[in-house]
Amino acid sequence: MRLGLIGTGRIGAFHAATLRSLAGVDRVTVADADAGRARALAASLELECAGGIEELYAAGLDGVVITAATSAHATLIHQALDHEVPVFCEKPVAPDVPGTVAVVERAASGTVPVQIGFQRRFDAGYLAARQALRSGELGWVHTLRACTSDMVPPPASYVPTSGGLFRDCGIHDFDILRWVTGREVVSVFAAGANKGEDFFAAGDDVDTCAALLRFDDDTLATATATRYNGAGYDVRLEVCGSRDTRIVGLDDRAPLPSAEPGRPGPHPTGPDQAGAQGTGPGANAVAPGPAGERGTPYATFLERFHDAYVAELAAFVDVAAGRAANPCPAAEALEALYVAEACDTSRRTGLPVAVSDVRSRRAPGAGVTGSSR
C-alpha cells in the first residue's frame, strides 16, 4: 500500500514513523509547506519526499494522512476527495461549523472514506468502559466525569489559532462521551477562567474550563480541561452506574498523588521539570514501580495515547484498503464540534445552551447527520 502524509510537525513525524512500521504499507511519501522539514523527516525515517501536494498525488496513493495546520485541514481533505484518495485527518475537520459541514456533505455525497482522528476511540480503557456500559454490567448510568488536563501550556502563538479550549481539548471528551454512551448531548452549561499566562485572555481564550452536559436520556456529565496541571498529563473518564463503575485512565502513571496517609504521594516532577513543550522526565515512558508505587506520570498526549494512535492508523489502513468500515467519519466530528460550540457560547453568555440551537445555525446545506457509534 502506498500512503502519503501531509504535515511533518510533531504529530506528523509520529504518524510517519507509525505508518512506516505497519504491515502492508510499502511506501510512505511525506510533504509539507516547509519543504526543508519534510526532507529532514524523510531522510531520518528513510521515506520518500514530495516537492508539493500535486507531486504527492501524482506518485499514486492508496491513502493520505493529514497532519498539517488546522487552517489547512478542510482544503486538504477536499483535495484528497478530488483525487478520490481515502483520507485520514487529525481533528478538527475545519476551524468552524460551516467548513466542517461542507466536508461532511461532500463526504456523504461520495464513496471515498474520510476518517477523523479521535484516537481515544482506540484506547483500551475507553473500549473496556464502553463494553461494560453497553453489556449492562454498570446498570443505568447516572454520572460521567471527564477531564483533559495538560501538564504545561502551549506556546503563546498557538492560542489564537487553536479554536479555544473547548474546541481544542474539550472536543475529545465530547466525542468520547458520545461514543462510550451512544447518547447525544442536548444541553450544556459552561464556564471558563484564566489564572495563568496573560496570552490566553489576549487570545480570547481561557486556560481552564468546566461544562455540565445533559444527555438525551437525562444522564449528566461533567467535562473539565486545563492547561496547567502540574502533576502531569491527566486524561480520565469515570462512568458511574447503578450497579458498578469504570474509570478510564487510572493506571500506574496517572498523575494522581494521594493525600491519604500511607498512600503514594506527589512524584518529583512538575512543569518546571517538564519544560515548555512537555519534554521533561515524563516524556520518556518508564516501567511502573513496585506494587504500591507510582511510575513517572505522563507528561504528553503522545505518551498517554501512544498505543491508541498506532491502532487508529492501523484501522485507517484497513479502511483505505476496503477491509473495514470507517470508525470515525466526519459527521461524528461535526457532532462533537456542535457540543464544543455550545459550550463556548455558554461560557461567553453565562447561560445554558441547547445543542439544537447550535445545530440549527449550520451551513451551507441541509442536515446531513450520521453515527458510527
UniProtKB/TrEMBL annotation:
InterPro entries: Gfo/Idh/MocA-like_OxRdtase_N (IPR000683), GFO_IDH_MocA-like_dom (IPR055170), NAD(P)-bd_dom_sf (IPR036291). The lineage of its organism: Bacteria, Bacillati, Actinomycetota, Actinomycetes, Kitasatosporales. The keyword Cell membrane does not apply. Residues 282-291 have a biased composition (Low complexity). Pfam families: GFO_IDH_MocA (PF01408), GFO_IDH_MocA_C3 (PF22725). Belongs to the Gfo/Idh/MocA family. Residues 126-243 form the GFO/IDH/MocA-like oxidoreductase domain. Residues 250-292 are annotated as: Disordered. It comes from Streptomyces tubbatahanensis. This is Gfo/Idh/MocA family oxidoreductase. Signal peptide: none annotated. Keywords: Oxidoreductase. Residues 2-118 form the Gfo/Idh/MocA-like oxidoreductase N-terminal domain. It comes from the Bacteria.
